[in-house]
Amino acid sequence: MNALEEKMKQKDIDKFREDLITWFEREQRILPWRENQDPYRVWVSEVMLQQTRVETVIPYFQRFVEQFPTVRALAEADEEKVLKAWEGLGYYSRVRNLQTAVKEVNEQYGGVVPAEEKEFGGLKGVGPYTKGAVLSIAYNKPIPAVDGNVMRVMSRILSIWDDIAKPKTRTIFEQAVKAFISHEKPSEFNQGLMELGAIICTPKSPSCLLCPVQHHCSAFAEGTERELPVKSKKKKPGIKTMAAVVLTDEQGKIYIHKRPSKGLLANLWEFPNTETQKGIKTEREQLASFLEKDMGVKAEIGELEGIVEHVFTHLVWNISVFFGKVKQVSDTTKLKQVIKEELEEYAFPVSHQKIWKMADSVQS
DNA sequence: AAGGCGTGGCC
DNA sequence: TGGCCAAGCCT
């Protein structure tokens, strides 16, 4: 008898599976990516839903699949437009990886999303969760799709006290789901686990009295549902002080900068900015020096207009915002000059949208 | 293994 | 209001 069978007998597993699927088929939410089983649409939705709430994703998903309806459309699109469609969703490497992967599907698999685990799972940005989710939902493959919901639900069902913040723990849940998953309706089973986690088996205050698998739940029986899952805490983010400038010239052109292709907010656009140090030089002096040495423009910088704070998962930016007038531009400047109306064609992170909003409200 | 990588909503 | 999260992946 293995560890899982000690927790639940095969007969009870059969009943759990049936109860879950019946509930899902009756209670599932109507969502745009559930209109059909198009593997491409399912894939896009799963990537958008990584670490992101359903309500946030819905409008992005609708616009995205309208603009890029097929693998081929996305594969052939300009990265600039793709990033713009993702603007505000966060974790921008997701969409750059998705486009990389879709290009490979277009070229290596004739535009058809591969249904084989090794092929699909080998694509950029497709990890163990996304692989299981897309292949089960779109192709009815009985492959586990273990996300945060599934770990929460199953930790309670089976009373699993391993720390879900540890990468290794996910494999424990994959083994459990392998034993539980329906081979007749793997799509409904996987989605049912996630839907249950989203609607009933919620993190803070689970609705156990409404739960379709309450009588299968070890945590409910023991009254420990609010203590599970166990999740260790992350350290709190450090703070970076920065100075940014909204630069214009006599023709009213605005000067913007493209971020590097790796790292934070890769390939997005921003207003020229630099990290500042407390000490000898003022922020204005540090900014002016940065513009001349690193950006190739000489400018007159005005008084401090305000401060923008932006909180990332792992980092806080405190940005002092200035306005500046460009006096001289080097041939090798790293800044792009655009008119106000063109700004909307470029993808900016929310932090820099806040900077523009501050500038725009002061000017008008 | 642990940390980088966004954002908005909730209490 | 600051901490915690929400359908993870990459290095």
TrEMBL record:
GO annotation, biological process: base-excision repair; mismatch repair
Domain HhH-GPD: residue ranges: 48-199
Co-factor: note: Binds 1 [4Fe-4S] cluster.
Cofactor: [4Fe-4S] cluster
Transmembrane segments: none
EC number of this enzyme: 3.2.2.31
The reaction(s) this protein catalyses: Hydrolyzes free adenine bases from 7,8-dihydro-8-oxoguanine:adenine mismatched double-stranded DNA, leaving an apurinic site
Protein origin, superkingdom: Bacteria
NCBIfam families for the chain: mutY
PANTHER family: ADENINE DNA GLYCOSYLASE (PTHR42944:SF1)
Protein name: Adenine DNA glycosylase
